[in-house]
Amino acid sequence: MTAPATHSAAPAARRLPLPGFVDGTLLTLVAAAVILWFAPSGMGRYGTYVLSLWLVMSVAVMGLNLTLGYAGLKSLAQAAFMGIGAYATALLTSKVGLNWYASFAVSGLITFAVGLVLGFPALRVKAHYLAFVTLAFSTLIWLVLRNEQWLTGGVFGLSNIPRPSFFGLKLDGALAFHRFVVVVTFLLAVVLWWMIRSPWGRAFTALRENPIRAASLGIDTRMYTLLAFAIGSAYAGFAGALYAPLVEFIDPSPFSLSQSFFLLLMVVAGGAGYLLGPFIGALLGVVLPEWLRFAGSLYLIIFAGIVMLLLIACPQGMSGLLERGWAKLTGKKEGAR
Amino acid sequence: MAEFLAYLIAGIATGAIYALAAIGFTLVWQTSQTINFAQGEFVMLPAVLVLLAIKLFGAPIWLGALIGIAAFILIFGVGFKLTVVDPMIRHGVLPLAIATMALSIIMKEGAKDGFSAEAQKFPSFVPTETISVFGAAISLQHVAIIAVAFGVIGLLQWFVGGTRLGRQMQATAQNPTVARILGIPVERMVLLTFVINAALAVVASVLISPIYLAKFSNGEVIGLFAFIAAIVGGFNQVRGALVGGLIVGIVDSMAAAYISTSYRLAVPLVLLVIVILVKPEGLMGRKEERRV
User: Fold this and answer.
1) pLDDT tens string B87-105
2) Rounded distance, CA B250 to CA B16, Å?
3) Predicted ipTM?
4) Are B121 and B61 in contact (CB under 8 A)?
5) Spatial separation of the C-alpha atoms in residues A103 and A93, rounded to whole Å
């Protein structure tokens, strides 16, 4: 399973005078970033906020997509990692007075390191042990966030989280911060795009497709699965670092175990193993419920139901469905995969 | 000492509940590679369905219990196997595990929206009194939980080891291909383990709900501890899940009493990590072997 968009857009890219490394996925990312830069005009504060939230969640889902979609590991702690990033950033910027960029880096580093420490014992045994270890870790983080009031504010959470500035330019407004989120998300997506195409990324995919063959080709499977998990966790840390200044107030509830389940479902809904899948998944999981307000908490049931149906009918998620539709339209056979 | 005894009994009682959930979990894992992340919700839901049946039909308790339990076993024993596991297992273990996560969300939110967001009283079948043993106040409910749970587990052990049907089930778990060659109806045996899993969940639910009350979020902790019990004891057998469940229950009870109430959940988690580091196949487990 290679990234599908690469296939469908490859001929188009060849016709245009573009450098050889540019592919459909990158073009889509650039186009989407430009559109999203201007999109919020006339959407109001709340609409802009929802768009930013979508991108922030997409970053977390992207990370989980690397773990699940490319390396085939179940991590049930993505929301917990996001919580670590969010609390680290909130504490560093509001209490310590560090600037956002350093806090962002620290959040990523912490979650990367925790990912390594957590993944090492679990992956020593069997891939699915990671699910149980992360399940336990998720609960543990939630306990710490709730109980250590001196540090995390307990159930009352932390408020007055400052928004970053860009070379002296204040980003306090909803639109300015949205554009900042667009840029950061774009950069993180491009890094991931590059990583997947690099020999590293090919090794990740090899792991998922055929671990025994990968091992026999000299890929250190344990090291690569561990790295995939740690990098995926670091993306959750980055997402948390964006989330804290976006909502300006954090409490433990969005970082619970159910939220980690929910993020996992977003990966699957969007299409695990597709680079653009997380954006579709987060759209279904974050933005759609805002439009379907009348459904209320039933939305969660509907979403989970849709994911189950997708898993039965098309395990490649929405990206897979789109790809099938595209193949039908262009009359190409589906055998490309 | 008296206090210790009371905590010990309480720990064994909750441990027996975790053991019931963990045994069902290992059974379906062995026969069909299903990692059921909705196992906790499986224990939460029967009590809710029973109360719902009583409320909807105005039925007496015994009839409500009958309807609720029958509906649960039908939907989440047979139905779960036929509509979720069978179409999904073709795609592999991973999609199936994720589907059970989706199922857990549906069950939890469904119980919240369709029944109640508040904890509801669940009728107890034994008096809610305490008796005094060596100066310790022991809850009759805990004693009843231990008696019933161990009775059920003993029955299951006898069924698996002592009856023809049980041995066929064991053969299916160990090697489905050979079992099929020997003329064992493998498909039906797998289905049977799902029904047994649902039945064990019902027993656990009816036993625990008078104490914990029937609430949509009960499954989270029970599920987590059932997974921990299964791994601590060893994935391979009923005995492992039983031992694991009891250990987790007792550790949890002691941690709440002597370490910290706010971090009681953390202690079994530490236990899990230690077991994975030191003896990953579980305390009772042996490497690369599958038994019922």
Assistant:
1) 888 888 888 989 999 999 9
2) 10
3) 0.85
4) no
5) 7
